[in-house]
Each structure stands twice: as C-alpha cells, then as structure tokens.
Amino acid sequence: MGNQRNLVRSLGMGYVVIFVVANIIGSGVYKKIAPMAAELHSSVWILVAWIVGGIITLFGALSNAEVAGLLADTGGEFIYLKKIYNRFFSFMYGWSLFTVIQTATISSIAYVFAQSLNSIIPIPDIFRSLQHFTIGGFFYPFQDFGVKLTAILLILILTGLNISGLKSGAGVSKAIMLLVFTGLLTIVFFGLGSITTTPSNFMDVKELTSGTITLSSFYTAMLAAFWAYQGWVSVGFIGGEVKDPTRNIPKGIVTGVFIVIIIYLLVNVTYLSLLSIPQLVHIHESGNQIAAVEAVRTFWGTGGVMFISLLILVTTLGCTNASILTGARPYYAMAREKLFFSGIAKINKANVPSNSLLWQGIWASVLVLSGTFDQLTDMIIFAVFIFYGATALGVFILRRRMPDVHRPYKVWGYPVVPAIFILFCIGLFFNTIITRPREAAIGMILILSGIPVYLYLKRKYSKIE
C-alpha cells in the first residue's frame, strides 16, 4: 500500500463509509449468532452483545483513527507500531498476522464457503473412519474432512490465481457488497413478514436482571460478535486518499459502524424471531450448519436454502480472495525491511510477491485442518485485540512524546474513549485465557514463536551488514 503516498486526496466521506461497511460485513453475520446462543441462552442478551460489541468496535476505530491521522501515508498498522514502540514489536505484529490473524482469517472464511457449498451440493465426508483421530486431544484434522478439503482447495486455487497476477477489480468488490446488502435486507423483509408466532422467551427484558449471565460468558459471546465486526482497521490504508481526513475519516468510521450495527440488529432480530434458542444451540453443536441458512429454510424451504447459500458463497468467495490478495503484502514489506525471510521479498514476472502468497496459502491450509470455524475465529480475535489495544495505547504515548505535532484528527472523548477500549482489550485477553484456554494457548504459542525467529533474523542480517 506504500504507493498511496503519491495519491491525490480525492475521496469523500461517502467512499469512507462504503469502505468501512464493505470491510466489516462478511461471514459473521450469517453464522455467529449460533455460538452466541450457546453461550448466553437469551435472545435479549444476544442483541445486547451485538450492541456493546459495536460500541467497543467504534471506540477502537476512533482511537486508531488518531494514530492513522498522525502517521498517515506510512504503511498502516505495521509501521504505526514500529513508530510507537520499536522494530521488535512491529515484527511481532507482522509475525502474528502470518501465523494467526491474517492466515486464520483466510482459513475461516474459506471454511464458511465450503460449508455453504455443502448446503447446495452435499460434499462427501472423506476419511470418515479417521474423524476421531486426534493430535494431542485438541486437533481433529479429519473431522468434516470433505468440507475442510474443499476450503483448502479454494485457498490454493485463489492463491494460484493471485500468483499469476490475476486481480479482482474494485467493481467486483462493490458488486459483492451490493449483493450482500440486498440479500440481508431480503432476509429481514421476508423473514419478519412471515412470522406468525415467535419463540418462547423471545426478547424477554426480564432476563436482563435475572442474574443468569456472568461477565465472563458475556465476554466469551462477544468473541463471536467481534469476528463479525472485524475489518474496520483497514480504513487506515486509504487515509492518504481522503479529502479533508480530519472530518471525513472519523465521521465515515462512525457512520459506517452505525450502519453495520443497525444491519446486524435487524438481521439478528429476524434470526431470533424464526429460530428458538435451543434450535440455534443445536445448529452450533452440529458443526456444519449455518444459522442464516436454517432461518431462511423456515419461510422459503429448499428454494430459500439455495438463495442464502449462493449469497454466502459469493460473499465468502470475494472475502477469501480479498484477504489472500491484501494479506500477502505486509510479509513482503517486512522482508524488504529485513524483518522477515529474504525469499518472501521476491516479486515474480507477473509483478506480485509470489513467495509471500505461496507460504501464506500453505499455512492457511494447515490452519483449516487445525480446528473448526469458531475455534479459528476465537483465536484471531484473541490475537488481534492484543495489537488493537497496543495501538490505542499509542494515542497516550504519542500525545506525551509528540505533544506539539499537528494531529489531523483527535479522538473524540479523549482520554475516556481510548482508555475504555484498552481496558476492554485487557479484559478480553484474560477472559479468553480462562474460557477458551485452547484457542488462547495456540494463539500465544504462535505469536511467541516469533521471538526466536526475530533473534535469528537479527543475527543473520547483522552478519551480512
């Protein structure tokens, strides 16, 4: 994204809003209500989790916007962290992108693509006799192997297309977003219009004061909500092209996140009106069902299943390709700065970082075998919020270190807004360790495995110099 430094500030707030919304709405809106139901067992608490998740996302995005505004046009989060902290910390962020954050994102979205395809054309369950085979009692690589193999094939095919230099245009992304919007609003319109009776305990406000929900279970449910809200950080990449960024970036972020919150609330109220909490828990436990598909099945039957499955197929195909295309760039940039293996910095004849794309594709394929969709996304949120919190802390550090430097945008509600976000990140970190120890442990091992790699690279390049 480095060439953005030479681009003209020609994009208005409307583009910022579209960019924010397009980068947030993905697979989570179709699927994440099921694990939330399994955790909270209450429709009203599920909606509260979506609202709180949206507000916290907004606080994080606003904090990020001040840092992005101050360090504009210098290369995104990787460079922000290098300026705020040091080369080691920015390397750990880049390493985490490779080992967990970006690659597991590719894996999980490809996984939903395969599940959706399975709803249209049943995928044979290969190696059924090995489905109980386990590695360390944690990993079941052959469980739902047909679906996993389909996800891996998608990753490898799209990686191959990107290595060959075939890139999807911005028009395709806009078309996909339009399809997603139309599909979700269709679900809301026809779903709510078809309701004759709602499930028992639907939106029972008394449950808010019943005392059955703990802070820990609420945090755990929000891991699912945060996956659905992922993507807002990408707005930093277009900072150098936005007209009047002081006004348009924060307003665009607020508007975009509010639009997403409203869409998520409408869609999830529709799901909760059509499916009872026990049905949603069953969908979660089944492993290969998608809540949106089952909700549409209730009012449109098999024809509706085809409609929603095709919609999810298109959405996740576009998301997987975009994640593969953009994901390979940070590792390439790291290698150029001698913060990654030198071979990753090579560009092929098609003028793309082919080695970066290849290794990203291979590792993302391995992660598909490592767990289920929800395990992967919990691992991502655990890892990424460590760095989101570090960036928000950067607001305080930079205000102290660079008090007189012009800030195009200052975070609204300073110091309360970034402080609340940082405290929330700390809470999420420790709660995930307690309630999702496996996902937290795998995430931490993958992140910390970067320390010996960093020391090796430092020694290697100091000898060359």
Structure description:
By secondary structure, the chain is mainly alpha-helical. The protein has one domain: Amino acid/polyamine transporter I (Up-down Bundle), CATH 1.20.1740.10. The chain is built from 17 helices and no strands. It has helices spanning 13-24, 28-31, 33-40, 43-70, 77-84, 87-120, 145-163, 170-193, 215-229, 245-274, 277-286, 291-336, 354-370, 373-401, 416-435, 437-448, 450-464. The protein is globular and about 70 Å long.
Summarize the structure.
This protein is mainly alpha-helical and 465 residues long.
What structural keywords apply?
single chain, 465 residues, mainly alpha, Amino acid/polyamine transporter I, 0% strand, disordered N terminus
